[in-house]
């Protein structure tokens, strides 16, 4: 319904920011990461997701498109609600989440408050399955297109696909990178910066 909202930050509290858009205050649920980037009284743009449940409408907003994409991806996992998704994204960046999924690192997810080993395993299992079926980037995708299975380039490409980027977008930014000198997470972080510039 809303792609983003732009206005002035009127109020902040844990996991919530009130964005004043032309005299209308939108209560936007968000992560600790996004809150840390906001300042009361200053203008901000939040990329939003409207969560509909029974008779309630909850608005969620994020500083970056990647964070919003990660939130949508997480709440699509069975047993993971908005509160758990916000907890995970408050404990780590979108690229750290995507790398954890691709590498099967459940410990990276359990550092988030309220996230136990079972739910971390479920997140990794379900998202890896969707990635294998090409359901996360909207098309069939394999990290093998960028290198041998299990190598840094392949893992980074798969992690970017987890974050919702297409094969073409990933290939365009990765082809110009010095992948050999970077870790998987550094590749993902640099690729996200380049993708953000392209979308701006």
Automatic annotation (TrEMBL):
<dbReference type="Pfam" id="PF14520">
    <property type="entry name" value="HHH_5"/>
</dbReference>
<feature type="domain" description="Helix-hairpin-helix DNA-binding motif class 1">
    <location>
        <begin position="107"/>
        <end position="126"/>
    </location>
</feature>
<dbReference type="InterPro" id="IPR013849">
    <property type="entry name" value="DNA_helicase_Holl-junc_RuvA_I"/>
</dbReference>
<keyword id="KW-0234">DNA repair</keyword>
<dbReference type="Pfam" id="PF07499">
    <property type="entry name" value="RuvA_C"/>
</dbReference>
<dbReference type="InterPro" id="IPR012340">
    <property type="entry name" value="NA-bd_OB-fold"/>
</dbReference>
<dbReference type="InterPro" id="IPR000085">
    <property type="entry name" value="RuvA"/>
</dbReference>
<dbReference type="GO" id="GO:0009379">
    <property type="term" value="C:Holliday junction helicase complex"/>
</dbReference>
<keyword id="KW-0067">ATP-binding</keyword>
<dbReference type="GO" id="GO:0006281">
    <property type="term" value="P:DNA repair"/>
</dbReference>
<keyword id="KW-0547">Nucleotide-binding</keyword>
<dbReference type="GO" id="GO:0000400">
    <property type="term" value="F:four-way junction DNA binding"/>
</dbReference>
<dbReference type="InterPro" id="IPR010994">
    <property type="entry name" value="RuvA_2-like"/>
</dbReference>
<dbReference type="GO" id="GO:0048476">
    <property type="term" value="C:Holliday junction resolvase complex"/>
</dbReference>
<keyword id="KW-0963">Cytoplasm</keyword>
<comment type="subunit">
    <text>Homotetramer. Forms an RuvA(8)-RuvB(12)-Holliday junction (HJ) complex. HJ DNA is sandwiched between 2 RuvA tetramers; dsDNA enters through RuvA and exits via RuvB. An RuvB hexamer assembles on each DNA strand where it exits the tetramer. Each RuvB hexamer is contacted by two RuvA subunits (via domain III) on 2 adjacent RuvB subunits; this complex drives branch migration. In the full resolvosome a probable DNA-RuvA(4)-RuvB(12)-RuvC(2) complex forms which resolves the HJ.</text>
</comment>
<dbReference type="GO" id="GO:0005737">
    <property type="term" value="C:cytoplasm"/>
</dbReference>
<comment type="function">
    <text>The RuvA-RuvB-RuvC complex processes Holliday junction (HJ) DNA during genetic recombination and DNA repair, while the RuvA-RuvB complex plays an important role in the rescue of blocked DNA replication forks via replication fork reversal (RFR). RuvA specifically binds to HJ cruciform DNA, conferring on it an open structure. The RuvB hexamer acts as an ATP-dependent pump, pulling dsDNA into and through the RuvAB complex. HJ branch migration allows RuvC to scan DNA until it finds its consensus sequence, where it cleaves and resolves the cruciform DNA.</text>
</comment>
<dbReference type="InterPro" id="IPR003583">
    <property type="entry name" value="Hlx-hairpin-Hlx_DNA-bd_motif"/>
</dbReference>
<keyword id="KW-0347">Helicase</keyword>
<dbReference type="GO" id="GO:0005524">
    <property type="term" value="F:ATP binding"/>
</dbReference>
<dbReference type="Pfam" id="PF01330">
    <property type="entry name" value="RuvA_N"/>
</dbReference>
<dbReference type="GO" id="GO:0006310">
    <property type="term" value="P:DNA recombination"/>
</dbReference>
<comment type="similarity">
    <text>Belongs to the RuvA family.</text>
</comment>
<feature type="domain" description="Helix-hairpin-helix DNA-binding motif class 1">
    <location>
        <begin position="72"/>
        <end position="91"/>
    </location>
</feature>
<keyword id="KW-0233">DNA recombination</keyword>
<dbReference type="InterPro" id="IPR036267">
    <property type="entry name" value="RuvA_C_sf"/>
</dbReference>
<protein>
    <recommendedName>
        <fullName>Holliday junction branch migration complex subunit RuvA</fullName>
    </recommendedName>
</protein>
<dbReference type="InterPro" id="IPR011114">
    <property type="entry name" value="RuvA_C"/>
</dbReference>
<keyword id="KW-0238">DNA-binding</keyword>
<keyword id="KW-0227">DNA damage</keyword>
<dbReference type="GO" id="GO:0009378">
    <property type="term" value="F:four-way junction helicase activity"/>
</dbReference>
<feature type="region of interest" description="Domain III">
    <location>
        <begin position="149"/>
        <end position="200"/>
    </location>
</feature>
<keyword id="KW-0378">Hydrolase</keyword>
